[in-house]
Design brief:
By secondary structure, the protein is mostly helical. The chain has one domain: Four Helix Bundle (Hemerythrin (Met), subunit A). It is built from 5 helices and no strands. Helix 1 packs across helix 3. The protein binds zinc ion (ZN). Zinc ion (ZN) binds next to helix 5.
């Protein structure tokens, strides 16, 4: 699915990402682990993905989940598959993606998932997608 606002959505995602990573950087500066002194890459390529996953250890769980979703979204914009609901595989409406650019499910599936999570008492990530 081609989204007219894709450049806008992408830059929104990059904003969110750098804000989240900026939070990590502060943590790194106070960390004595030398592994973390390397520069954070700008692109959403595989290297930055795996790198980010190391950094996630320093994030709170909510930020952690959010960053994973943002990384996935950026990856999908570059490599295809962005905006497809992970559950029903229908395209997610552009209006929703403009509000929640890292959404991975359409609203209908999201409410099903949230219902599930409430029932199972699991802490999941999809509540982050809610409007
Ligand atoms: Zn769906």
């Amino acid at each position: 699915m081609k989204y007219k606002s894709l450049p806008e959505i992408k830059s929104k995602l990059q904003d969110i990402r750098s804000r989240l990573l900026g939070g990590i950087e502060k943590t790194i500066k106070t960390s004595k682990d030398e592994e973390f002194t390397q520069v954070i890459p700008d692109s959403a390529d595989e290297a930055s993905r795996s790198f980010s996953r190391q950094m996630l250890l320093n994030l709170g769980e909510q930020d952690h989940e959010k960053l994973v979703q943002v990384e996935d979204a950026l990856y999908q914009i570059e490599h295809g598959g962005y905006g497809t609901c992970k559950l029903c595989e229908e395209p997610i409406p552009e209006a929703r993606l403009k509000v929640v650019p890292f959404a991975q499910h359409c609203v209908a599936c999201l409410s099903v998932i949230e219902q599930d999570q409430t029932n199972n008492r699991q802490s999941g990530s999809d509540h982050l997608e809610a409007f």
